Amino acid sequence: MASKTRTRASLTDESSLKTGAQIVVDTLIEQGVDTMFCYPGGVVLPLFDKLYDAPIRFINPRHEQGGCHMADAYARASGKVGVVLVTSGPGACNLVTGLATAMMDSVPIVALTGQVRTELIGNDAFQEADTTGITRPVTKYNCIVKRVEDLARTIREAFYIASTGRPGPVLIDIPVDVEVNKCSADIPGEMNLPGYKIRSKGNARQISVAAAAINRSEKPVLYVGGGVISANASEEIRLLAKKAHLPVTTTLLGLGSFDQRKPESLDMLGMHGSAYANYAVQECDLLIAIGARFDDRVTGKVKTFASGAKIIHIDIDPASISKNVHVDIPVVGDAKAILVELTKEAEFRERKSWFEKIAEWKKKYPFSYDRKATAVKPQYVIEELCRQTKSEAIVTTGVGQNQMWAAQFYRFIKPRQLISSGGLGTMGFGLPAAIGAQVAKPDATVIDIDGDHSFNMTMTELATAVQYNLPIKVCILDNGYMGMVRQWQELFYNKRYSNSSLINPDYATVAQAIGAVGITVDKKADVSKAIEQMLAEKKPCVVDFRITREENVWPMVAAGKSLNEMDGLDILESMA
Amino acid sequence: MKHIISALVENKPGVLAHVAGMFAARGFNIDSLVVGRTEDPDLSRMTLVVVGDDRVVEQVRKQLAKIIPVVKVQDFVGEPVVARDLMLITVSASPDKRPEIFSMIEMFRGKVVDISQRSLMIEISGPESKIEAFIEVCRPYGIKNVARTGTIAMPRQAKAEAD
How far apart are CA A546 and CA A550, in angstroms? Predict the structure, then answer.
């Protein structure tokens, strides 16, 4: 036995051995990774040492959460997998919000975390955390690699799982000794995922049933979600809507999948969606949901949601079907492939009275605000941004009023144009997301439409934008409140503004101190000029728009109400 | 309604945590959960008993199938299956009561696996209803300890072969 071992060892040429760290770097490059968001620390030093010479662009955030949001937005803007690498313990823990954000919005991320030495695991070692335990519910898949021989295979599996089916974040935890250990360089490392099957083509018979329902329908509505954007199926949506003559509404994450300038566009539906989209959904006889998941912010009271309609649901995730709302015609598979087949069988139908009715609602209740006001109105700022960027900027947002106004007043015309935390509603997403998007699309105009309190949460990443010369634009709609919290307190808590207003710094001064450009706007007359200047800046630029403090987002479907029970319609009507 | 769900899973660390975590996170209740190896060393079988209406159990099935290391999920509801629990039960048994108890054990096709001056340990397997019934008949003598597995199940072969 002993002699046998010795023979084998002598046969193994040292040069055909690779360290775990080298395997990680080689496999990342093999997977096409050219950009990573990473923050070093003790147990990932072997990896960082190997990465030092790798042909990969590194962006160092100021906080791991920011890095994770950057990788997320990088993925959303480019369609590629975002990669983030951090150390164990606090580094890994700081990823949690970013992973949960990506999980809820189905964004492909591969997160690599360092871990303490294998023999220390479970001993409460320095910077040890049960990373796989903590992140299990916020990842599509995660695992710890305890043998260097398993590294290449696991990383390949991670990229495959993250980017296929319903995409999502995958985390791999790598103990430091596995980074240092060596194994033979020619281990094939083929993927082995017996439990992971993706249904890509939809059932042909179901597609025909769906097409027949569309062809019969007098009052259909196409309800498009973010799944259409991740499936790169926006063009197929346009073709179906055109051929079958369908009005199209989208979710927040679906914005950009259908050109909002088209007459068939009903804009966004839901809690702060357009009145015409919500009315159309409630009155339709056929709702065709594609890559959407009937989120409570979309449906309002589930019992009364589209209660007269037959529902078709096309989705890659079988668990999404009939989860919240009963579906009559499910089609499981890839939206793009299914749409192509569906469109073949769809027929044109005029639906004159339905489109007339929609046009009436559109005319009566457009998104609106007090255009005559002399104060700076947030909606005006966004309309002006949209005008000056010709609807072509990539827009990221914070969460709350700023996000809803951006969704209502910017007109999105192409996919991957709006990058927003829809499902988790992560305040602080906007700035790091703008950085990630700008890294992915260096030539695009990237604007973070943010709230003051959202911006406060991750403002530190402005230094990242400065360091890497990323010319992002940040428009803070600064009302000195957590605006949406304040709106709810005004409407439902008798204007008791409990803890919803913090003292803000002077953002322009902060921006300048960090090395960015800072502008303050407190007059309506200065808005246009400031935006012009901002768009011309080559450096990161922050514009602090001091907006009307107590502006509300209308319309609004209060929690628990039906989608057609909207507040604020009188306000919209009076300003139309 | 009670559903017996059988899940074939990869024999990897963390799978049980993933399944249990999914149930907790989505608010599904598990009546029982049994995990054991199969004939294939790379696979384990989890047998879960879940009570809920069809919509809930449908979600349970789909959410289970969605977990990457879960290879196959079957809901046995409405199918002819053999379902068994195993129990070890220790009952107080003074020498004068033993003949009665022995005849009862025989009736239930149980087995005495340990004996002491004052008690008997009995091994018994069968459908859950039989286990429950045996506990009831033991109760008057004084139950000292009960250890039960959950349900394991397998579809009847005649049906499987017809497929």
Answer: 12
